[in-house]
Each structure stands twice: as C-alpha cells, then as structure tokens.
Amino acid sequence: MILKNYQFHYSLIGTLDKPLILFLHGFMGNIDEFDEAIKLLFNEFSYLTLDLPGHGKTQVLGEDEYYTMANTARALINLLDELKIAKCFLVGYSMGGRLALYLALNFPERFHKVVLESASPGLPTAERLERIKLDTQIGRKLTRIFEKSDFAAFLSNWYNQPIFGYIKNHPEYDRMVESRLQNNPHELDKSLRFMGTGCQPSLWEKLKCNTIPMLLLVGESDKKFIYINTGMAKICEFAKIKIISNTGHNIHFENTLAFVENIKSFFSTAS
C-alpha cells in the first residue's frame, strides 16, 4: 500500500470476528518475524504484519527523516486508518517494541493492550550521545557490506552479543540468519541512524502516565533488559513484567510456545 512518503509491504490475514494483533518486528527482522507464533495464535486472532522502514520490501519514498520513530508511528496509524482498523492489540519486539511503546503512549485510543518483548523506553539524555556514536559506527559497517558473505559475518558478530544468550545453539538459528540476509544493509543503516535507541526520544516520563495494560516480556539470560523492564514496571502501575526461562533477547524465537501462551493469557484477561 502506498501512503504519503511510504510504500508498505504488509499482510493482513483473518476475519472480522477475531480480535486483531499488530506485530512489529525487531532490527534486521521482516514481515515473517512472528510466523511461528502466528501459527499457534491463528485460531483465536487475526493479525497484521509488515516490513518496517529500512527492512524487507517496504520503501521510504520521502527524505531520510521518514525513517524516524515519530514519522514511522504516524505512518502506521495512517495504515490502520486505511485498513479501517479502529483499535487492535499490539506486540513489538526489541526495536519494534520501542516503536510499539511510542505508539501506545502517543495514540493510546488505538490499542487495547500491548506486549513489549525485550523493549525499552529509550535512554536518558546523558547516555544518548554515546549510543548515537555506537549506532553510527555499526551503521558504517553496514554501508561497507556489498557481498552476502560479509553480511553473514556481520550477523554472526551481532548474535555474539551477551543479550542474545545461547541463540546460536538454537536448531533454527541458520534459518533465522537466512531471513535476516534478505534485508538491504544500506537500508538497515538508515533505520539504525534514524530510529536507533540513541535517536529515539526518551519515553520514561510519558510511561509514568500510561493507562494501557502492558506486559513486559524479558528473557532470563538478558540481564540488561531485565534491569530496564523492572524499572519500567516500577514506574507504571499498568505494566507487569514476566521473565521467560531459558531465553535471551529473542524470546519469540527461542521459546515460541511460552511467548504465545503469555500473549494468549494477557490478551484474553479482562483489564
């Protein structure tokens, strides 16, 4: 669908009698990110998936500013309007989780409940400059990638990060990497530079005023995000944290069944 400044690649599957979930993938993910989870949710929900700007087949038709979180969020609201979706459930992973939180805090009337997987409200101002420098360095590496083998090496290093725990031992790890390789590294650079953690506005203060029920999922091996999400739950009475055993940052990939069970339970429970 072509909207102003965007051409979105999306999939909308289900029927009007089933509640709808909007899924937002993480950095270097794509429209297929949640396929295994969706297979287990299909009987009870409809779903909307898409490639976020800088990923997959979605194209930004305007200037680089349209990769930012604020403009991407507004574009997604416009997409919901075009599809005549007044209100839905929302699930976001990592970068998609940060975007989901932004959407929930700025457009609360559009979402029933929100699941944030390994997400954060951004950084305090003092830390943002250092993170921007780090994201810029990573972006430079992406812009130097022209061969698939170089991209594969980049991904191998990426998943060595402590937050991902033992993800490389997962039997489907190679399949996940192959999916990541479908992205354009130069577009990923733009996503990182304009919607990375360093660039996004801090949402900590707004989170204090949130009234949408939120489930914060974190993996037990992801100590960094356990700390962040514990802080989120402390300042927001409508947010509760759940630590998923035997997982790191990518819960829906490492333990799909636990991920789905938590979504089902949370979305089916009265507020």
Put the structure in a nutshell.
This protein is α/β, with parallel strands linked by helices and 271 residues long. It contains 11 helices and 10 strands.
Quaternary status: single chain
Tell how many strands the DSSP assignment holds: 10
Strand order of the largest sheet: 3-5-4-7-8-9-10
Low-confidence segments, given as residue ranges, are none
Continuous helix count: 11
Overall form: globular
Q: What composes the largest sheet?
A: 7 strands, mixed
Look at the helices and sheets and give the structural class: alpha/beta
In percent terms, what proportion of residues is strand? 15-25%
Q: What is the CA-CA span between the terminal residues?
A: 34 Å
Overall description:
This protein has helices at 35-41, 69-82, 95-106, 125-143, 148-158, 173-180, 185-195, 204-208, 223-235, 251-254, 256-268, and strands spanning 2-3, 6-7, 10-13, 20-24, 46-50, 59-60, 88-93, 111-117, 214-219, 239-244. The chain has 271 residues and is α/β, with parallel strands linked by helices. A seven-stranded mixed beta sheet has the order 3-5-4-7-8-9-10, with helices on both faces. A three-stranded antiparallel beta sheet has the order 1-2-6, covered by helices on one side. α1 crosses α11 (256-268), α2 crosses α3 (95-106) and α4 runs antiparallel to α7. It is globular, with a radius of gyration of 17 Å. The chain starts with a strand and ends with a helix.
